[in-house]
């Protein structure tokens, strides 16, 4: 195919989506992509060559857990223990005799058993020359084939490690490991000679699937995270050096192949980190898996489990792409592949057994190779498994000795201690450690002469909650009141760290805390739904608390640092109110900081710490310092001084965090149990971080500042009253100024914030608009119909964050504020697709916002856009609003605002539209105070049924300021009013931050400003909803010429008028201008239709709204032409239908027609298109439009005009009979907006007729008499036999026609001199007669503007001109004094308004205003003409 795919998804995205779907849906779907059964079947059916199944079994990070025993609690544990894993190993071996058993490191440290064997009764003592280390004894008993070193193997030094692995010199045979230990990236100091054997090639005899013996060579390569030389510097400095994991693999994998390895397995003590990069990355599995020729990987270090066997909910967050909320595209959690390589991580403590089942095939030359695609990794949990007595026996004596040792008394605690809340508030379990460390160092500095230079310097002490759920919900410190033992000290200080003391500046202390503050997710103050506080990617042992200073952490700000120490947001600072001795911390002051060897040597990558001046490089364990303190103190009274806290948040936030289920038994007052449990067994708690606001003591004035229908018009300038208005930067200035004026304000958006957007926004999937709204600090938003344009998934991604489903290169950050909607519900569950309401607190009062969207959404959006959604009926909507309003009242909310993306318009005294209907439908005593309208881009500011209804046009050309005065005791609204302000650009400085944001995105798309041609300004969409338009013709012509790759031009093209969103500008035309015209990025579709279906399609243009009024959406066409008799029923309306050359369209013949995918799916009621017999998807509509313009006009003048493709006859032809007057045409139906020249609603003559009965006058009782009287006289008619459409606007031509008919004026001898009034149109005679009678003079510049809607002051002027000679002079200043807006009445109209006011023909509107520029509707026009006739008669 030849078309450009400027916006199409790349194939890789589609494939990624397919894999993602497989992971989400599980095995049935996944089998289609990865099934090993299918792979085997293919091998078996297509070849007789042998196939070998080889199972790799992996344990890792056992950390001296053999018994299922918690040495800290001195109680059984069901989650750990190699003795349990042993049972799984036996089962796995029985299932597959071809196997290897491997350990991936961190074996000999981690519990008091490890400490006991290394420090208390070390196996290096001569007395233990015949005793193996208990962990080696256990592995020997299980028959391990190989093992590697983890970082913790080096905690006790190289000599100790050598004794563990190689046994005692006196009895090596009985004390050594009976399997090889390998490592390739630890070198002797020369950096050339490997310190250990780098790899092992095991020659193994196995049976193939045919039962025949085969010999294969399995190569095992060992690697460890290179940071060991930093973390255990005291043990390793000058003795070894390390190299990067990836570079080492790249060196040795080819060497192993050359040495004959058929299979290469990399055993790497390193974890997974998607962001890891660089030669010495700590967690390098992602990069390692991309090294060529690796067949399988066992990995470890981070204590995670991979894969989780299809259950993504149990997969650690480090494997999850934050953009998609699913595993990274190269992670296959179903089959355990990373970048296509089978890989397994077996958790912690013997809690899991990792399996990799390799499929090994042989080619014709006899060479063995691993079929990685058919191979599968998996994990098995040891929870609940029976412990193997033989394994227990190997360590039984050491186990009991450890229990006895840890029971050694140290002191007493007066209160219990636990670390359940240590990540969210200052905690005694951390403070007892920091206090003991500080005390120890203070004593040394004051007594050791060598440390005298540091006397007087402030000493800070660092601690972290080491046991805070890292390895599951059971891993928290928990110590009862009473005796404290060594076991207690180990529970408080988990690791065998050694104490280090460094000197740093205050600036380093600040950045140290900023790094630590990365433990928290950002909390959005304007979001009221639950927000998880804890960053699951942040290691708990890196959450450093620094005692000796005071500080707060503001979690509403971005973290400054990522979890690996790299910069996340350099401009951000979470650490606030940082003080030392109650004065702001001096960044240049020197501080002594007590920490441990891991942190001081650079562990955790804390900025500025590594390389600091070391003033105490001790080998004293931090735990020993703690034990000594407890012994000396005797009795401990555990407290926390609350030197740090999370800063209160101004907003109705719901902050949650996870902790042990046991925490619910000891909850402090600021924490509550939600009752929920996550997939890993953690309990979910809520933390009260809301700022306490004192109750108001007087009535509260709140201003709701809002916009609607912004449509992503970030850089669009509109014209209002001949002046430039709008753009996001100008709007931002107005909004910020408005908020600055008021003590209490909230900023909201009422739907269609995006969709049909300007290209600077739409090309980036509207993320620029969302980003702008976030920067502006919006507090709440609602859904409009355009939010559904791209489907519910895309809608939710924009709101909640993630990779855009239509363009995964765009990653949405999500909104920083709540969106609400109550009437779009899930079609299966019947529950709202987002939160139906939200509570905002401001000035000590609560305001509830309920959201609804226009019920016409299904007809305005492609069916795909609303798939899975049901929109409530009007009655259901009212019930829902009342239900949620009652819920709000139950929560103490009495001020309630409905953000209703429903049409509304205020003209004169009347506010009408769907929002007004909603207000009327609500009970008179409904607690709803305000309804904000939207959708029809109009002005609304009026009261209906006690509810204030407000709308502020669209595109950021205006904003509303709703003033509420709320009773401070009851919370009820005492007064309410609104002002709508136009955002004129003159004299306004655009907001600099917004300018920068818009320019940032404009710079990404220089094509937006490149000219593609010029126009004379006549190619517009004027009246496209009702008639042929020049721009519609241009677009349809482009569509019919679209290249679908089949070499065939379509017969016809149809473009829906709602998809034409702007006009071509006068002058230069850029790609950006074209994108504003067609902003949706729709795909063109070529359909095969019959001639009969083409006719049906045209008939479906003429719909009817729910209220019975017309809903016309005239298709813009190419390749055909037709004539429609609009005065006939729809079924009979098409009078002729031919191709452009006049050839009739055969109802039975098939034709091809190009439409967009919105229409093809039945959007805008074009349902017949869903019945096409064939469909071919093609290019993007904008691409086609752009290419057509470029190729057709070659950068020159772009031309298009109205050609007569569509002929709409509004009335039958006038038939003249000899000796008689012409037969008058009946009144046509009213046409919908937007219409520059809508058909008149007046009859052609004032002859009396039987009066019709209109059914839609219930809401305009004040106009019923006038309407019925004029209708009975034939002066006016309804839009059909039963409806008058009283709220429909009236144009100047329509009102003049009504006025002329009511006065029985004729046009004899009259002629038109207005250049915009053509001869022969329905209103030309009336205008001529009115000019002749002196009623009208035109609008200036030789124009009459017949299609412009008439204002109230223009109408008054025409009436006075009609009554000239019958009126008496009045004191206009005295009469007009009653109107607050008298200054806005044009000078030419003041006399007329005064005279008609005096006579009672016209009245003011709400709030003592006349609203001279307000638009008149049909009801108002009828009343004023009726009153005029009454005055004339009198």
Automatic annotation (TrEMBL):
The reactions it catalyses are: a nucleoside 2',3'-cyclic phosphate + H2O = a nucleoside 3'-phosphate + H(+); a ribonucleoside 3'-phosphate + H2O = a ribonucleoside + phosphate
Pfam families (UniProt xref): 5_nucleotid_C, Metallophos, SLH
Q: Which InterPro entries match?
A: 5'-Nucleotdase_C, 5'-Nucleotdase_C_sf, 5'-Nucleotdase_CS, 5_nucleotidase/apyrase, Calcineurin-like_PHP, CpdB_N, Metallo-depent_PP-like, SLH_dom
Q: Where in the cell is it found?
A: Cell envelope; Secreted
TM ranges are: none
User: Which cofactors must be present for this protein to function?
Assistant: a divalent metal cation
The Gene Ontology biological process terms listed for this entry are: nucleotide catabolic process
Q: Name one GO cellular component term.
A: outer membrane-bounded periplasmic space
Q: Map out region (Disordered) in residue numbers.
A: 1218-1246
- Residues forming the SLH domain are 1250-1309, 1310-1373, 1376-1434
User: Which first-to-last residue range defines the signal peptide?
Assistant: 1-26
Q: Which UniProt keywords apply?
A: Hydrolase, Metal-binding, Multifunctional enzyme, Nucleotide-binding, Secreted, Signal
List the molecular function annotations (GO) for this entry. Answer: 2',3'-cyclic-nucleotide 2'-phosphodiesterase activity; 3'-nucleotidase activity; 5'-nucleotidase activity; metal ion binding; nucleotide binding; UDP-sugar diphosphatase activity
Chief location category? other
Q: What is this protein called?
A: 2', 3'-cyclic nucleotide 2'-phosphodiesterase
Say which species the protein is native to. Answer: Paenibacillus durus (Paenibacillus azotofixans)
């Amino acid at each position: 195919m030849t078309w450009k795919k400027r916006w199409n998804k790349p194939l890789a995205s589609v494939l990624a989506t397919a894999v993602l779907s497989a992971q989400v849906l599980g095995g049935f779907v996944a089998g289609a992509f990865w099934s090993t059964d299918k792979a085997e079947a293919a091998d078996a059916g297509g070849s007789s060559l042998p196939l070998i199944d080889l199972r790799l079994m992996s344990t890792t990070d056992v950390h001296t857990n053999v018994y299922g025993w918690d040495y800290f609690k001195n109680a059984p544990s069901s989650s750990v223990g190699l003795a349990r894993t042993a049972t799984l190993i036996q089962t796995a071996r029985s299932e597959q005799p071809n196997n290897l058993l491997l350990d991936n490191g961190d074996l000999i440290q981690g519990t008091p058993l490890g400490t006991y064997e290394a420090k208390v009764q070390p196996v290096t003592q001569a007395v233990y020359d015949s005793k193996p280390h208990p962990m080696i004894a256990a592995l020997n008993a299980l028959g391990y084939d190989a093992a590697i070193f983890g970082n913790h193997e080096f905690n006790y030094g190289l000599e100790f490690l050598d004794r563990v692995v190689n046994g005692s010199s006196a009895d090596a045979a009985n004390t050594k490991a009976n399997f090889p230990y390998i490592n390739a990236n630890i070198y002797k100091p020369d950096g050339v000679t490997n310190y250990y054997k780098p790899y092992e090639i095991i020659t193994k005899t196995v049976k193939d699937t045919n039962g025949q013996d085969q010999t294969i060579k399995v190569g095992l390569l060992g690697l460890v995270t290179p940071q060991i030389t930093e973390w255990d510097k005291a043990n390793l400095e000058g003795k070894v050096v390390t190299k990067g994991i990836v570079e080492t693999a790249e060196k040795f994998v080819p060497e192993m192949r050359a040495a004959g390895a058929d299979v290469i397995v990399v055993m790497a003590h390193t974890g997974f980190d998607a962001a890891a990069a660089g030669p010495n990355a700590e967690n390098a599995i992602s990069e390692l898996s991309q090294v060529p020729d690796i067949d399988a990987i066992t990995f470890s270090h981070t204590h995670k489990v991979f894969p989780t066997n299809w259950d993504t909910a149990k997969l650690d967050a480090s494997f999850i792409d934050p953009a998609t909320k699913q595993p990274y595209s190269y992670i296959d959690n179903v089959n355990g592949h990373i970048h296509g390589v089978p890989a397994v991580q077996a958790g912690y403590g013997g809690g899991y057994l990792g399996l990799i089942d390799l499929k090994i095939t042989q080619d014709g030359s006899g060479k063995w190779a691993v079929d990685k695609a058919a191979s599968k990794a998996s994990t098995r949990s040891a929870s609940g498994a029976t412990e193997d007595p033989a394994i227990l026996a190997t360590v039984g004596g050491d186990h009991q000795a450890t229990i006895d040792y840890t029971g050694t008394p140290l002191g007493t605690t007066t209160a219990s201690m636990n670390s359940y809340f240590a990540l969210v508030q200052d905690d005694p379990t951390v403070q007892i450690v920091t206090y003991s460390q500080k005390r120890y160092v203070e004593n040394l500095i004051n007594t050791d002469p060598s440390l005298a230079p540091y006397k007087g310097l402030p000493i800070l002490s660092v601690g972290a909650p080491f046991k805070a759920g890292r390895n599951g919900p059971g891993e928290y410190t928990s110590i009862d009141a009473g005796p404290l033992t060594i076991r207690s000290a180990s529970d408080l200080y988990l690791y065998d760290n050694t104490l280090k003391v460094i000197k740093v500046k205050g600036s380093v202390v600040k950045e140290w805390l900023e790094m630590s503050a990365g433990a928290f997710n950002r909390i959005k103050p304007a979001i009221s739904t639950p927000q998880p506080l804890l960053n699951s990617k942040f290691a708990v042992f890196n959450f450093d608390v620094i005692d000796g200073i005071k500080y707060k952490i503001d979690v509403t700000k971005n973290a400054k640092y990522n979890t690996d120490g790299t910069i996340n947001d350099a401009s951000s600072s979470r650490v606030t109110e940082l003080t030392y001795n109650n004065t702001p911390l001096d960044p240049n002051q020197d501080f002594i900081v007590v920490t441990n060897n891991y942190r001081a040597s650079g562990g955790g990558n804390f900025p500025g710490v590594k390389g600091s001046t070391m003033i105490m490089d001790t080998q004293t364990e931090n735990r020993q310092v703690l034990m000594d303190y407890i012994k000396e103190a005797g009795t401990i009274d555990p407290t926390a001084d609350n030197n740090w806290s999370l800063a209160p948040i101004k907003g109705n936030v719901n902050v949650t965090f996870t902790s042990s289920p046991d925490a619910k038994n000891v909850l402090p007052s600021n924490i509550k149990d939600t009752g929920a449990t996550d997939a890993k067994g953690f309990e979910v708690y809520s933390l009260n971080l809301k700022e306490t606001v004192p109750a108001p003591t007087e009535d509260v004035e709140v201003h709701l500042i809002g916009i609607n229908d912004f449509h992503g018009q970030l850089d669009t300038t509109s014209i209002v009253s001949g002046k430039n208005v709008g753009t996001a930067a100008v709007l931002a200035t107005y909004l910020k100024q408005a908020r600055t004026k008021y003590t209490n304000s909230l900023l909201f958006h009422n739907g269609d914030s995006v969709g049909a957007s300007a290209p600077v926004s739409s090309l980036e999937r509207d993320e620029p608009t969302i980003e702008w709204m976030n920067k502006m600090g919006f507090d709440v938003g609602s859904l409009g119909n355009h939010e559904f344009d791209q489907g519910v998934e895309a809608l939710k991604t924009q709101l909640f964050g993630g990779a855009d489903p239509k363009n995964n290169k765009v990653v949405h950050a999500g909104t920083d504020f709540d969106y609400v909607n109550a009437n779009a519900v899930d079609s299966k569950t019947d529950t709202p697709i987002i939160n139906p309401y939200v509570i905002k607190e401001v000035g000590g009062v609560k305001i509830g916002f309920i959201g609804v969207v226009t019920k016409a959404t299904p007809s305005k959006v492609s069916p795909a856009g609303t798939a899975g959604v049901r929109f409530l009926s009007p009655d259901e909507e009212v019930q829902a609003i009342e239900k949620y309003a009652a819920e709000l009242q139950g929560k103490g909310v009495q001020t309630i605002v409905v953000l209703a993306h429903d049409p509304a318009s205020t003209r004169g005294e009347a506010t009408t539209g769907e929002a007004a209907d909603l207000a009327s439908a609500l009970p008179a005593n409904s607690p709803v105070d305000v309804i904000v309208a939207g959708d029809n881009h109009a002005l609304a500011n009026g009261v209906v049924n006690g509810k204030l209804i407000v709308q502020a046009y669209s595109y950021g050309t205006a904003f509303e300021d709703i003033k509420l005065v709320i009773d401070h005791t009851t919370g009820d609204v005492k007064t309410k009013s609104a002002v709508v302000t136009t955002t004129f650009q003159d004299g306004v400085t655009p907001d600099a931050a917004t300018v920068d944001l818009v320019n940032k995105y404009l710079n990404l798309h220089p094509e937006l400003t490149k000219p593609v041609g010029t126009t004379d300004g006549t190619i517009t969409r004027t009246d496209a909803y009702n008639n042929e338009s020049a721009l519609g013709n241009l677009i349809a012509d482009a569509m019919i010429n679209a290249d679908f790759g089949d070499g065939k031009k379509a017969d016809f093209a149809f473009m829906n008028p709602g998809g034409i969103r702007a006009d071509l500008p006068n002058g230069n035309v850029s790609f950006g201008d074209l994108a504003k015209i067609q902003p949706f990025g729709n795909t063109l579709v070529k359909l095969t239709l019959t001639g009969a279906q083409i006719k049906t399609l045209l008939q479906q243009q003429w719909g009817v709204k729910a209220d019975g009024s017309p809903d016309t959406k005239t298709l813009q066409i190419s390749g055909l032409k037709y004539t429609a008799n609009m005065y006939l029923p729809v079924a009979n309306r098409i009078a002729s239908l031919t191709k452009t050359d006049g050839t009739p369209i055969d109802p039975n013949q098939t034709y091809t027609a190009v439409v967009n995918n919105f229409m093809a799916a039945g959007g805008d009621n074009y349902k017949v298109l869903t019945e096409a017999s064939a469909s071919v998807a093609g290019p993007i509509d904008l691409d086609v439009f752009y290419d057509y313009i470029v190729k057709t006009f070659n950068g020159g003048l772009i031309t298009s005009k109205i050609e007569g493709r569509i002929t709409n006859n509004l009335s039958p032809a006038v038939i003249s009979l000899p000796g008689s007057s012409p037969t008058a045409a009946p009144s046509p139906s009213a046409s919908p907006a937007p219409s520059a020249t809508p058909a008149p609603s007046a009859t052609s003559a004032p002859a009396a007729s039987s009066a019709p009965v209109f059914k839609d006058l219930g809401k305009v009782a004040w106009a019923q008499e006038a309407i019925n009287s004029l209708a009975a006289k034939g002066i006016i008619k309804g839009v059909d036999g039963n409806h008058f459409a009283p709220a429909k606007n009236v144009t100047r031509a329509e009102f003049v026609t009504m006025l002329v008919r009511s006065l029985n004026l004729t046009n004899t001898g009259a002629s038109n001199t207005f250049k915009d009034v053509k001869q022969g149109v329905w209103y030309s005679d009336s205008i001529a007669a009115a000019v002749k009678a002196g009623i009208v003079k035109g609008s200036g510049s030789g124009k009459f503007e017949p299609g412009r809607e008439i204002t109230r002051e223009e109408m008054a002027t025409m009436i006075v001109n009609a009554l000239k000679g019958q009126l008496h002079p009045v004191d206009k200043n005295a009469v007009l004094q009653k109107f607050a807006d008298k200054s806005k009445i044009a000078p030419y109209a003041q006399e007329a308004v005064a005279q008609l006011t005096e006579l009672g023909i016209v009245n003011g509107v709400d709030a003592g205003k006349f609203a001279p520029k307000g638009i008149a509707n049909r009801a108002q026009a009828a009343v004023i003409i009726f009153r005029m006739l009454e005055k004339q008669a009198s």
